[in-house]
Amino acid sequence: MKFSFSIISIFAVLLSACNKEEKIEEVKLDETPYTLKSGYFPAPTLPIDNVLTNQIVKLGRMLFYEKMLSRDQSMSCASCHVQNDGFSDTTRFSVGVEKLPGKRQAMAIFNMAWHSNEFFWDGRAHLLRDQSLKPIQDPLEMNETLDNVIAKLNSSGEYRNQFIRSYGTEDITPEKMSLAMEQFMLSIVSNDSKYDKFKRGETTLSASEERGLALFETEFNPYFPEYSGADCAHCHSGFNFENNKYMNNGLDGDAEITDIGREMVTGLESDRAKFKVPSLRNVAVTAPYMHDGRFKTLNDVLDHYNEHLKMSNSIDPALIQVVEKGGLKLTEEDKADIINFLNTLTDETYLNNEEYSSPF
Predict the structure, then answer these.
(1) CA–CA distance from 103 to each of 94, 109, 305 (Å)?
(2) Across the strands, what pairs with 295?
(3) Cβ contact 158:360 at 8 Å
(4) Predicted model pTM
(5) What are the two backbone dihedrals, phi and then psi, of residue 125, each rounded to the nearest 5 degrees?
(6) Is the separation of the CB atoms in 215 and 342 below 8 Å?
(7) Which pLDDT value is given to residue 338?
(8) What are the residue ranges spanned by the domains of the chain?
(9) In this predicted model, what pLDDT tens digit does every residue of 68-90 receive, in sequence order?
């Protein structure tokens, strides 16, 4: 009887194990649309050939934080684009797997769905999908080949399953990787700062912040100093605080220019030292500043426009008069108020949103 009971018990355990295996969820394509949380922003023009879905956004998020994308598996995209720092890098030049510094400051990532004028400081990537693969192959960054990345991802059942959920097949290709990372970056939205709450009528600005906003929006007027402002909105305007342009903002004189910026892409001398105008959202947490990270603080940036602008052949025309008149003539109180306003552009919701954080 004891023997028979033991046989029955063993059989029951084996049957239970088989039943558990049979209950494993089947991996299949899931095309559930992803809802972009654009809030009070205008609806963006999203790519019609890369419709956002929950599973592809999830795959892109996995790849964004995946260290297998680098040669020695020590770096991911998130190594140089840290969420708490506005998806930027607090070092002047990010250091790659070969311990070599990059050539430009890592740009912040948010509200990419509203960008329509190329990517990178010089605009050398037409779409986000183009941008997403370049750091992987850059010798100064991840220094890896796409073939090696695909081989590493293919060794992971988790990734093969996620590609099935995303595309209906476990076939991993560079194109699918780039489209997935594009979707994740398009999903990253920043629209809940104190300034946004002020615009929605949910809060008020302090007297200093309100004065800073006024100075930010008021044009430079050397003939009537009492009515003159910082003219920041000339370049940083609209709901996203940028102007969709590439501009030379007087960092260097002609003889001092070592990075020709947009000219490298267009071949036009008129584009020399022009760089993509970044959004000022979350600017208080994305130091250092400019394409080469030369300024450590917002006060340094204001000092540049206030007294250190340099003339060159491709400087933005709006700055020529400022240079000729010796700068903006902002007082210390003016600068403090402007910085207090800029601090209202910090979006704690975006900085701490778990939907954008590592899935691992």
Answers:
(1) 8, 18, 24
(2) 289
(3) no
(4) 0.91
(5) -105, 120
(6) no
(7) 98
(8) 54-189, 194-344
(9) 999 999 999 999 999 999 999 99
Distance CA 44, CA 229 (A): 31
Q: How far is CA 266 from the centre of its chain?
A: 23
Least confident of 8-17, 263-272, 307-316, 329-338: 8-17
User: Going by CATH, does the domain composed of 194-344 fall within 3.40.50.300?
Assistant: no
The C-alpha atoms of residue 228 and residue 132 are separated, in whole angstroms, by 42
Class of domain 54-189: mainly alpha
d(CA 76, CA 288): 21
Using CA atoms, how far residue 44 sits from 34, 40, 116, 314, in Å, is 14, 11, 10, 31
Residue whose tokens read 């990253």: 188
Cα 279 from Cα 216, distance rounded (Å): 14
Distance from first CA to last CA of the chain, Å, rounded?
51
Say yes or no: do domains 54-189 and 194-344 share a fold.
Answer: yes
Residue 256 burial (CB count, 10 A): 10
Residues 6+ apart with CB under 8 A from 220: 228, 229, 230, 231, 321, 322, 328
Q: What is the chain's alpha carbon radius of gyration, rounded to the nearest angstrom?
A: 25
Q: How many C-beta neighbours within 10 Å does residue 147 have?
A: 9
